[in-house]
Design brief:
- It is found in: Cytoplasm.
- InterPro entries: AGPR, AGPR_AS, AGPR_dimerisation_dom, AGPR_type-1, NAD(P)-bd_dom_sf, Semialdehyde_DH_NAD-bd.
- The protein contains 12 helices and 13 strands.
- The chain is an alpha/beta fold.
- It folds into 2 domains: about 160 residues, NAD(P)-binding Rossmann-like Domain (Rossmann fold), CATH 3.40.50.720; about 160 residues, Dihydrodipicolinate Reductase, domain 2, CATH 3.30.360.
- The strands form 2 sheets. A 7-stranded mixed sheet has the order 8-9-7-10-13-12-11. It has a 6-stranded parallel sheet with strand order 2-1-3-4-6-5, with helices on both faces.
- The longest helix has 15 residues.
Amino acid sequence: MKVAIVGGTGYGAVELIRLLNNHPHVTVEKILSHSSSGTKLSEVYPHLSDIIDLEMDALDVEALSKQVDLVFFATPSNISKDYIPKFFELGIRCIDLSGDFRLEDEAEYRLYYEDSLADEKYIKEAVYGLPEINKEKIKDTKILANPGCYPTATLLGLLPAFKHDLVEQDNIIIDAKTGVSGAGRGLSLNVHFSEMNENFKAYKLGSHKHIPEIEQELTTAAGETIQVTFTPHIVPMTRGIMSTIYVNLKEHHSSEEIISLYQKYYKDHPFVRVRNEGIIPSTREVYGSNYCDIGIFSDERTGKLTIVSVIDNLVKGASGQAIQNMNLMCGWDETTGITQLPIYP
Ligand SMILES: NC(=O)C1=CN([C@@H]2O[C@H](COP(=O)(O)OP(=O)(O)OC[C@H]3O[C@@H](n4cnc5c(N)ncnc54)[C@H](OP(=O)(O)O)[C@@H]3O)[C@@H](O)[C@H]2O)C=CC1
Ligand SMILES: CC(=O)N[C@@H](CCC(=O)OP(=O)(O)O)C(=O)O
């Protein structure tokens, strides 16, 4: 199958290229760039020299729809919403790494993304691509909204507790940390070396665009409106997300009991690993891989459940999950091409 990647010089795109290079059924036919058309990707990223020799092109929807079967959008928000409807009408499937098709509510999108939502017709066509909850719908969709990095780690950590009705649905506190590559390749004062090195910052308290995304999916799972307290932090590492979640248990269950429920919940989901009692995963344990690893601690003293969920933001948090979704959309085994081991140390 031939695919194209839009947003060619960004981190999401280059991670797609790294992973798709091992995919047995896919060729990256076209790489589209609005800033660097006419340039070889390997001139921007010399680590690809003599391996990926494609020259990047400007995006032309009509022409591209005749050349490829599926298009990945690895662009900033508020861009794919103008293009994906056109590809849809031309019968081309799209996978969007940005947030343009994740939210169903116009008002929430306006508030958090500061723009108008895509036309309702296409929002209705889109499926939220968290394979661990939406596998069947993903198989049939032509517009795949790949989840955000923080929501991926957080929802995978929380959903089994919701499913088993273990926790109170208010007072959900999500304390999350990300590596700097989460901010993409673009330069900004916030992420340059001397601002980040030996530093640790909380940001966007109460205003991060992943709040409505997490709440939307938890509300669907719970069948009633859920609100969360979400505080993201940026830490001086390149890759990785750790989402540490605090919830109140409805009644006491030991760590062992809850771990057993989580392990059963994920037994048919190859990319989620739940650690045994007393073992809490670190971001290095998933680095470069499509795994989400979860650790559980139930505190009998306080009645609180602490869930620690880690992913690589660029893999399970973006490009790896996008390929997992492509595999499902194409009827292939969901692990095809993305079984790389984590890189350790
Ligand atoms: N980094 C991460 O960990 C994650 C990222 N995401 C999402 O994936 C998407 C891509 O992220 P990431 O690759 O990190 O971001 P980058 O900033 O690294 O790359 C985005 C690329 O999009 C292209 N682009 C930028 N501005 C425009 C524009 N105005 N019009 C068209 N194209 C533009 C540029 O490539 P070019 O000039 O070559 O076209 C740019 O390099 C974003 O929506 C991001 O939020 C999701 C989960 C995790
Ligand atoms: C460090 C940093 O800035 N991280 C980004 C990660 C979010 C992201 O990639 O968001 P979408 O997938 O929803 O576009 C942020 O917090 O905005």
